[in-house]
Amino acid sequence: MSFIPYSCQNIDASDIAAVTDTLNSAYLTQGPAVPAFENAFATRHQARHAIAVANATAGLHIACLALGVGPGSRVWTSPNSFIASANCALYCGAKVDFVDIDPVTRNMSLQALEQKLTQAAKNNTLPAVVIPVDFAGLPCDLKQMRELADRYHFSIIEDASHAIGAEYLGKPTGSAYADITVFSMHAVKIITTAEGGVITTQDDALAKKLRLLRSQGITRESADLQYNPEGPWVYEQQLLGFNYRLTDIQAALGSSQLRKLDAWLQRRTQLADRYDELLAGLPLKIPARLSDRRSSWHLYAVELDSEATRRSRCEVYMGMQDAQIGVNVHYIPIHTQPYYRALGFAEGDFPNAERYYSRAISIPLFPSLTDTQQEYVASTLRTLLSI
Length: 387
Ligand SMILES: *Cc1c(COP(=O)(O)O)cnc(C)c1O
Hints:
Elements: H1 13-23, H2 33-44, E1 49-53, H3 56-66, E2 74-77, H4 84-91, E3 95-98, H5 110-123, E4 129-131, H6 142-152, E5 155-159, E6 167-168, E7 171-172, E8 180-184, E9 197-201, H7 204-214, E10 218-219, E11 236-237, H8 248-258, H9 261-278, E12 284-285, E13 293-294, E14 300-304, H10 313-322, H11 338-341, H12 351-359, E15 360-363, H13 371-384
Parallel strand pairs: 2-3, 2-4, 4-5, 5-8
Antiparallel strand pairs: 1-9, 6-7, 6-13, 8-9, 10-11, 12-14, 14-15
Helix pairs in contact: 1-8, 2-8, 3-4, 3-7, 5-6, 9-13, 10-13
The protein binds pyridoxal-5'-phosphate.
């Protein structure tokens, strides 16, 4: 059997045609493909605004800035995430802290958040922004988080990098509860533009600010100009922005990918259901199912039961790789990275995230994974865990 990666993009003839059409068009960037993609994304996610950006990291950065994060601000996120969820706040000069995870959902724990907020209210150290992460595509507890946000006056940036097309309380991710939601279109994510991100918000003023921040702080809209324009060429830089734009080539690919989203989500869900069955009885914990939300199944991460098997996580990882199966580990807790240790964090600070990490392994899950490949993954894992 040839190598099975843990995740894999899906590119077909219609994607290639969309890209080549754009290459042959008048605009490679700043043309009509970007707003067309943004509109399609907003419609699919029932969001008032969608803003395409160069990558989700850039999206998280300007989301923080648009919400006023700066030197002196505090931003809290989940330690069980990719480093970008925390780095975005450091880019703004803010102070980062973490809230431990719920061992069942592997997302930020609501109880831990509430406890930390109660303490922070006493110490006058409340966060300006909290960044929950929809780990593996499972939406976090945003409704209760919104209640806490309103009570303690912080904003919510939902890092939905894993959660394109996920659903919570019957509504698509990116449509409600968070002030701003950020999605990633990196090649391993649910839909891809190679690199890319999308920001959604329901707030007109935030959307306007995000669009400015994405493109050098520049506007050409006559209604938005602060000075009387000398002529039609005039643009104004109104704040210090960046070049965080997505190209038209990528946006055309994004629109083409988006058309396949629902079929892919269906296949991902089917594969996850099959894993649940194929792995039954093994000494490991499978991902939780919650009746009020639907995961986009970006990852299928299991936790080895170290009391019930003599195999270490590293042995299982190496054994799978040796069998040509591309497993991965999500995530090394952010606070244990050397850069974050240098900021004062230490091992032991967020024990649930650390315990989860020490046992976690993500096995292959992507729409083109075949049933036969999946059975091979499951049987290899079964053999490895049988001693
Ligand atoms: C992939 C990812 C990011 C960063 O996305 P990019 O598009 O690569 O910048 C941020 N947060 C999480 C949770 C991710 O998985």
